[in-house]
C-alpha cells in the first residue's frame, strides 16, 4: 500500500475514498486534519501543517521486509523490528514471551481516547500501519534482559509507521532495553501501549542512536495497575527531530512510576520529551527528572504535567527539569505543570536554565585544564546521575555518546 503524507490531510484523496479503511484510521485522519503536525519550535500544544515538518517525505510501503544482508540472528533475548515490521528470523524470543501480529484494531480505539487530541503523531501511525504487534509476558516471569530493536534504513525521506502492545502479567519482573536506530533519512512514527498488571515491575532503558538526518516521533501510553512499578530512563540525541510523548496512568492504588530522560541537542537539532503523569488512584507515587544539554543552535524541550484526580488522595509526585546551554544560539524550553484536584497530596515541580558558571571554568583553568576540557568535566558531572541510572547493558554506550557529543565541532551558522 503506497501513500503520501499529503494524502493523509487531503479530504478528496484516493486514500479517503478507500472503502477498506477501518474506523480507527478514519478517526485518526480526522484528528490529523484538525490539528496538523507539531511545530518544531516550542509553542506549547500549537501545531502547524505537516508539510514543513516532514519536508519531502514521500510515503510508506506496508509490505513485509526482511533484515538487510550482514545482520544475523541475535544470540541474546531480543525482538527486532525492521522498517516497521517484526522480523522473526532476526529475533530471539525467550520462553516467557509470546508475540503475534494482529489486525485487531479495537484496542487502539481506547488508545486514541486516552491520549490528548493534540498528540496527532500516534494517529498518523495508526493510519500508516494496519497491523499491530502484541507481546505478552507470562504471569510471574523473571526476565533479566530483553532487547527491543527498531531498525530503519528507508531512504529519501520515506515514512514508516508501527504499533506495538506489551502486556506484562501479574507479578512479573522484566527489564527491557529499547533501541531506536535510523540508518538513513526517514521518518519513523511509533505507537507503544504498555499494560503493567498488578504487582508487576517493568524497568526500561530507551536509547536513540545518532542519526542526524532522521526524524523520530514516538507516542507511548502506559497503564499501571495496583502495586505495579514502572521505571524508565531515556537517552535522546543527535537526530534532526525527535519527539517522545509518554503518558502514564497510575490507575491502581500504590502504583509507582519513575521517569528520567537525558536530552542532547546540537546543530539545529530538535529533541523533545513530553510527559503526562496521571494519578488516578490513592497512594500513588511518581518522579520525573529531565536534564538537557544544548550546543550551537540545538534545541531541547521538556513539557511535563502532573495530574492528580480527586480520588487520588495521598499522592506523592515530583517533576524536575535542569538545562545547560553550552554555546551561543543554543536553546532549551521547559514547561512543568501541575493540575491537582485532591487535598491530601505532596506534589512539587521545578525548572532551571543557564550556562556553565565562569567561576567554575576559572577554577579549573587554575588547575591546568583548558576551556574545552573544563566544560567536558562539568557536563559529565551534570549528567553523571543520568548515566548511572541506566542498566549495565546500556551505561557504557550512553557514556560513549556523551563523550562524542562534547567533541562535536561548533556550528557557526
Defining key terms:
413 residues; ten-stranded mixed beta sheet; 9 helices; alpha/beta; nine-stranded mixed beta sheet
How would you portray this structure in words?
This protein is of the alpha/beta class and 413 residues long. It has helices at 5-9, 14-17, 23-35, 50-54, 106-114, 120-128, 358-365, 371-389, 392-407, and strands at residues 2-3, 37-38, 47-48, 60-61, 78-82, 85-86, 97-102, 132-137, 142-152, 158-168, 173-182, 186-196, 201-208, 211-224, 229-237, 239-250, 256-265, 270-279, 285-294, 299-308, 315-325, 331-340, 345-354. The chain has a ten-stranded mixed beta sheet, with helices on one face. Strands 7-8-10-12-14-16-18-20-22 form a nine-stranded mixed beta sheet, covered by helices on one side. A hairpin with a 2-residue loop joins strand 5 (78-82) and strand 6. The longest helix is centred in the C-terminal third of the chain and has 19 residues, at 371-389. The two termini are 41 Å apart. Mean pLDDT is 82; it is low at 40-72.
Query: Count of helices?
Result: 9
What shape does the CA trace take?
A: globular
**How many strand units?**
23
Main sheet specs: 10 strands, mixed
Strand content: 35-45%
| Low-confidence regions | 40-72
**Cα distance spanning the termini:** 41 Å
Query: What helical percentage do the residues reach?
Result: 10-25%
User: What's the gyration radius in Å?
Assistant: 21 Å
Mean pLDDT: 82
In the sheet with the most strands, the strands line up as 6-5-9-11-13-15-17-19-21-23
Structural class: alpha/beta
Amino acid at each position: 500500500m503506497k501513500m503520501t503524507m499529503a494524502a493523509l490531510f487531503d479530504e478528496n484523496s484516493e486514500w479517503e475514498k478507500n472503502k477498506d479503511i477501518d474506523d480507527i484510521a478514519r478517526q485518526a485522519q480526522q484528528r490529523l486534519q484538525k490539528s496538523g503536525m507539531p511545530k518544531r519550535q516550542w509553542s506549547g500544544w500549537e501545531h502547524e501543517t505537516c508539510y514543513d515538518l516532514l519536508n519531502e517525505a514521500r510515503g510508506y510501503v506496508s509490505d513485509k521486509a526482511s533484515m538487510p544482508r550482514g545482520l544475523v540472528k541475535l544470540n541474546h533475548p531480543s525482538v527486532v523490528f525492521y522498517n516497521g515490521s517484526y522480523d522473526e528470523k532476526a529475533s530471539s524470543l525467550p520462553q516467557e514471551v509470546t508475540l503475534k501480529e494482529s489486525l485487531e484494531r479495537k484496542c487502539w480505539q481506547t488508545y486514541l481516547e486516552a491520549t490528548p487530541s493534540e498528540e496527532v503523531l500516534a494517529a498518523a501511525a495508526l493510519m500508516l500501519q494496519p497491523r499491530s504487534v502484541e507481546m505478552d509476558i507470562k504471569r510471574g516471569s523473571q526476565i533479566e534482559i530483553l532487547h527491543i530493536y527498531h531498525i530503519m534504513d528507508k531512504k529519501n525521506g520515506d515514512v514508516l509507521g508501527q504499533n506495538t502492545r506489551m502486556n506484562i502479567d501479574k507479578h512479573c519482573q522484566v527489564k527491557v532495553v529499547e533501541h531506536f536506530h535510523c540508518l538513513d533519512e526517514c521518518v519513523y512514527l511509533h505507537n507503544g501501549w504498555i499494560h503493567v498488571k498488578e504487582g508487576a515491575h517493568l524497568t526500561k532503558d530507551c536509547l536513540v542512536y545518532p542519526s542526524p538526518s532522521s526524524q523520530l516521533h514516538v507516542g507511548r501510553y502506559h497503564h499501571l495497575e495496583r502495586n505495579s512499578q514502572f521505571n524508565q530512563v531515556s537517552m535522546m540525541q543527535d537526530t534532526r527531530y525527535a519527539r517522545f510523548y509518554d503518558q502514564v496512568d497510575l490507575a491502581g492504588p500504590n502504583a509507582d512510576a519513575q521517569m528520567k530522560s537525558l536530552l542532547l541537542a546540537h546543530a539545529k537539532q530538535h529533541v523533545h520529551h513530553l510527559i503526562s503523569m496521571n494519578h488516578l488512584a490513592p497512594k500513588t507515587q511518581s518522579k520525573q527528572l529531565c536534564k538537557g544539554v544544548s550546543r550551537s543552535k540545538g534545541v531541547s524541550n521538556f513539557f511535563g504535567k502532573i495530574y492528580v484526580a480527586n480520588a487520588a488522595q495521598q499522592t506523592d509526585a515530583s517533576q524536575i527539569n535542569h538545562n545547560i546551554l553550552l554555546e551561543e544560539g543554543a536553546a532549551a524550553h521547559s514547561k512543568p505543570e501541575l493540575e491537582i484536584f485532591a487535598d491530601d497530596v505532596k506534589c512539587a515541580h521545578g525548572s532551571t536554565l543557564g550556562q556553565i558558571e565562569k567561576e567554575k571554568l576559572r577554577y579549573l583553568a587554575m588547575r591546568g585544564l583548558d576551556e574545552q576540557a573544563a566544560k567536558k568535566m562539568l557536563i559529565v558531572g551534570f549528567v553523571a546521575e543520568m548515566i548511572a541510572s541506566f542498566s549495565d547493558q546500556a551505561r557504557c554506550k550512553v557514556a560513549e555518546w556523551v563523550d562524542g557529543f562534547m567533541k562535536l565541532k561548533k556550528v557557526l551558522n
